[in-house]
Amino acid sequence: MDRTPDLAPALKLAQRVDDIAPFHVMELAKQAALREKAGHDVIHMGIGEPDFTAPEQVIEAAAKAMRDGRTQYTSAMGLPALREAISDYYRSYYGVEVDPSRIVVTAGASAALVLACAALVGVGDEVLMPDPCYPCNRHFVSTFDGKPVLIPSGPAERFQLTAERIESHWGPATRGVLLASPSNPTGTSIETAELGRIVKSVRARGGFTLVDEIYQGLSYDGKATTALSFGDDVLVVSSFSKYFNMTGWRLGWLVVPPSLVPTFEKLSQNLFICPSAVAQHAAIACFRPDTLAIYEARKDAFRHRRDYVVPALERLGFKVPVMPDGAFYVYADCSGVQHPDAGDSDRLTQALLQQADVVLVPGLDFGFAEPRKYIRLSYATSLEKLREAMGRIERVFTGG
User: Fold this and answer.
1) Helices 289-315 and 56-67, interaxial angle, to 10°?
2) 105 backbone dihedrals φ, ψ, rounded to 5°
């Protein structure tokens, strides 16, 4: 039987494809899977995914929606009841009034960032962001032919942008800033007063402030705040993946300025139709008092893990220059550990996978400012496994 030849090698790809770098964390995950298939007991501290899953209340809400046949398309902006629940959550948790009409429910935080970049980033527009930062953020900007400008942001700045650094890097093509607080990969937040100065500075220049707050529910030190408290012109992205433990459900939201609601509705209709109906019905149950109590208990568990793993890393020779105050990551300096690959996080993480069956992530994913100096550790796994992982790493370092 005749077969159509594979024409893919002859196809000309868009230039933007070359601008998107491979994701090292996923490559390490694939290598780890091969070791597991060969019988190795691998401890995963690479991918940022809670080991907790959706509570029973959420699962039952999803099942009921399916049994009741509530699986058809919803509004592109999301179920009104879910938008109301999110609005109530901002009021009760953060003390901020957010009109439900400003809330766009999305197919995960990634879809929210796609919508934001589609609306705000034009050809050649520059968007400032810290280095290090979540790699997909710069790729979202590049996808819409914008130019991500990564500004080296070290321990002195809590690995975050400051108003002063933004002002010194703002140019004729700059259109706005993309921040994350708490941040992946560092677990650090922008201090509230500094965030206020950033919003004021960007506003004065006619730019947009887009803040990724998907880890905001996992803030451990002091009262959590939201960038929405600084004005209706701030855009905020959030998600049901991290605090709400619903990674694979692919559901998030975006809060936009009132004047941009029609624009985002139009884009949502055309790009995504709507988010998963079942996931939306399930997510309403996230805001029940008994469900929120479960999430708060799980948050305490994450805090206990952080309080164990940071000193444990430091005893092994890693330096943690900024205590992570949120999310479930530690960004650690590996240049002083007792290992031949100290100071080269790419080689060190490979060595620890092969020698200890422990998955860590090199800084190469997260930017260009000293990426080989740092590793990212995710403590989104049990305390028992964290202790076992630290013991394995110690044995590698000591030759035990």
Assistant:
1) 130
2) -80, 135
- Residues 213 and 241 sit within 8 Å (Cβ to Cβ): no
CA–CA separation, 393 and 116 (whole Å): 41
Q: What is the pLDDT of residues 148-202, one digit of tens each?
A: 999 999 999 999 999 999 999 999 999 999 999 999 999 999 999 999 999 999 9
What's the rounded Cα separation, in Å, for the pair 178 and 113? 10
316 and 390 in contact (C-beta within 8 Å)?
A: yes
The CA distance from 200 to 137, in Å, is: 22
CA–CA–CA angle 243, 245, 249 (5° rounding)? 125
- CB-based contact 373:345 (threshold 8 Å): yes
Cβ-proximal residues to 322 (8 Å cutoff; 6+ apart), any chain: 155, 158, 159, 186, 188, 331
CA dihedral 78, 81, 83, 84 (to 10 degrees): 160
Q: How far apart are CA 72 and CA 62, in angstroms?
A: 13
Each residue of 233-252: b (16+ CB within 10 Å) or e?
A: bbbbbbbbbbbbbbbebbbb
The token duo for 354 is 């092969």
H/E segment holding residue 358 = strand 358-359
Peptide bond into 132 cis (omega under 30): yes
Q: Mind listing the pLDDT tens digit for each residue in 49-91? A: 999 999 999 999 999 999 999 999 999 999 999 999 999 999 9
Contact (Cβ atoms closer than 8 angstroms) between residue 20 and residue 142? yes
Beta bridge partners of 332: 375
310: which residues sit within 8 A by CB, 6+ positions away? 320, 323, 324, 330
CA separation, residue 134 to residues 96, 161, 194, 330, 391 (Å): 27, 14, 20, 14, 29
Amino acid at 215: Y
- Spatial distance between the Cα atoms of 107 and 155, rounded to a whole number of angstroms: 33
**How many residues are listed for the chain in this entry?**
400
Structure tokens at 152: 């080296």
For 9-107, strand residue ranges (E) read 43-44, 103-106
Interaxial angle between packed helices 80-89 and 277-284, expressed in degrees from 0 to 180 and rounded to the nearest 10: 40
